[in-house]
Amino acid sequence: MPSTEPLLHKLVAEAGLPEITSYEDLQGNGFDHQIVHATLADSQEVVLRSRKKSWPLPVGRARFLTEHELPAPALLGGNEFATLYEYVPGEMLYNLVAEDRMTDASWRSVGTAFRRVHAVRFPSGLSGPFDAGRLVLEAIDPVQDLHERIAAAVPRLEANLPFVLAHLPRLHAIIDAYADSLRPAPTALLHGDVFPTNIIVGPDRTTLIDWDFPRVADPAQEVSALDEWMYLAGGGCLADAFFDAYGPRPPNTGLYRITGAIGWFGRGPFNGWEIDFTLDEARTEQVTGWRNSLVAYLTDLGDRLDEL
To answer: pTM to 2 decimals?
Structure first.
């Protein structure tokens, strides 16, 4: 990856922006990017996101987000190793939840942001990723998809949480019972990575950053994922005030919450019980906490299935 300072100056100049007067590294909770916050001569603020792996510049996707007036920072420039965005003032939702500083007004702001994203609708039965320049959709049966996700998790569960296996036949039956709700469900644009460090709660609005993996799917999947992160970050759930602004909870949210927890147990920065050995001490402690919270959630799986 090119050195950060020359890269920052290069991309600012190529974007036709004023000279940089100051900059600082931002210490966040992400795993993949180096983040630099810079102030320009006209007091404008920008953020550089750089990474070792090359990545197509998301020009088409950024244009789509801007044209639909979605809560995303404007793309100012970049190359295959870095992107330059407008700076978004505010605090990460992860920190606000962990420190118990979220207010009803803050939750309504978050709910408003997700309502706007999920208002971009597509025909039911279509799903797929939105890469740097193309939106690729295909027909998908959400019932079959959920059955396959659960089946794929069985080897990990056998090795790490065998007590969950006894509940899976019942879960498969519930998925079939939800078929009339799952198949006609609306599909919408999803941010795709609602890790709460990607949600910036500002004084006037909430903005979603790091649009690296947006996709089209049932909004219930994203609401359930956000609810899961609230559980992992602070042991709670989405506040009622979120839904005051977002609207009614999507009907399949509870089912996706359970199936998502089962699937997520074997993904991300851990696989089953093993923590990624490349993480530093602070990250290892953080990820261990997430894993243990998931185990606690799945320990009560029988009761959670009763609630569906």
So the answer is: 0.93
